[in-house]
Design brief:
The chain has 152 residues and is mostly helical. Helices cover 82% and strands 0% of the residues. The chain has one domain. The longest helix is centred in the last third of the chain and has 29 residues.
Length: 152
Amino acid sequence: MTMQSHERKIDAAMQSYAERWMKSIDRPRASTTLGYFFVGMFILFWSSSLTALLGFDLKKGYGALIFIIVGLSLTFTTIFINRLMTKLGLDRSIRSALWLSAVIGPYANLISYNYWHLPVISHIVGFAASILAFIFSFLLDKMLGKYMKPGD
């Protein structure tokens, strides 16, 4: 008798979970994740660069360990910041655009500074690149989101 009661509770819990999951399918999803892709690639780049700057060889034991530690710490920091932005209520397309602009802007600043050696102009170029990257990523997300149906 108690076994049947326990099975009914499990069945009710599973049905409740299934209903919530089915409702979540109808929510619109972001169609592109340019920012997430570039941040993932740059985490690998930054991890190898920081490991080399610390004086370790990536091909040897401690260098590989340092590379993994730095990569994991950057990954967990990125995930934490992304969850914080989610709790603040930012949509996925806005978060992706923010990540892309955060990656593009500083590199545009560095490239223009190394080419022209003008700090003010390079900061303007970096800021403009950040804004343009944000707008491009956000508009691309929204434009493709119109043509993608939920669940496709």
